[in-house]
Design goal:
single chain, 240 residues, mainly alpha, two-stranded parallel ribbon, 6 helices, 52% helix, disordered N terminus
């Protein structure tokens, strides 16, 4: 299929309504709770198959649904992955992790858990179940390995939201996704600064128009696939 180039700005270009630049954990949880209530009121609708056996895109894996429901489950799956990574990181800090780094990683962990639980509650009965992940290739004892993986996950998350934003039909869902990706972009900037000060705005991550990357759901899932053990069925997930 010929690749479609989105004409929309990335979601991370949408101004955040979260408040302070350095978002406190309790503030995010309060906002996430309000957003969950808003999304629930909107009334989610869509299809889901309760088939959790195997994984492929032809009907044997965990079915994501179609349309906006599939996109929300797609985001939910990515948030589960990020939450799993940061939970293990905080529980098993790398050698030499400073108190400040530990505090920041704990906040990031709690943000990702809030994102994960937001989608779980908002999707309700249409949510996929909890996924199993393979993080065995990550050396949690190595700062370099952890930061490289964190950068990969955060950059991928931002690109995922940016790339899927224009596929979302309901503008209310789009607004909520824009709020979440603004937090993910801050995570990405902080991790990149830990690796190399100022790299959060270098040419690797910001294009000539000053925008972050945007990737299709199919590209993002291919990149995340080595970490996902559960079988998933995304045959009706909008992509390009």
């Amino acid at each position: 299929m010929e690749k479609i180039t989105p004409s929309h700005e990335p979601l991370s270009a949408i101004p955040s309504e979260f408040g302070p630049k350095d978002l406190r954990r309790r503030d995010f949880l309060k906002i996430a709770g309000a957003s969950t209530a808003t999304l629930a009121i909107l009334g989610l609708s869509g299809c889901r198959k309760d088939d959790n056996h195997g994984m492929d895109n032809g009907g044997n894996g965990m079915y994501f649904g179609s349309g906006d429901i599939a996109i929300l489950n797609y985001a939910y799956a990515l948030e589960q992955l990020e939450a799993a990574f940061y939970i293990q990181l905080v529980n098993n800090p790398y050698a030499g992790m400073t108190d400040l780094e530990k505090a920041f990683f704990t906040d990031v962990r709690d943000h990702e858990i809030a994102h994960r639980e937001f989608f779980k509650v908002a999707l309700g009965a249409k949510a996929i179940t909890s996924l199993d992940f393979n993080l065995s290739g990550i050396n949690f004892g190595s700062r370099a390995s952890v930061l490289t993986t964190a950068k990969t996950f955060e950059d991928l998350g931002v690109a995922a939201y940016n790339g899927a934003g224009w596929l979302i039909k309901d503008v209310n869902y789009l607004l909520l996704a824009g709020k979440i990706v603004s937090v993910e972009a801050r995570h990405a900037a902080w991790v990149r600064d830990l690796i190399d000060n100022g790299s959060f705005a270098d040419s690797e991550i910001v294009d000539s128009n000053g925008l972050d990357p945007a990737e299709s759901p199919s590209v993002v899932l291919s990149a995340a696939a080595p970490f996902i053990k559960s079988k998933i069925d995304v045959r009706d997930l909008p992509t390009y």
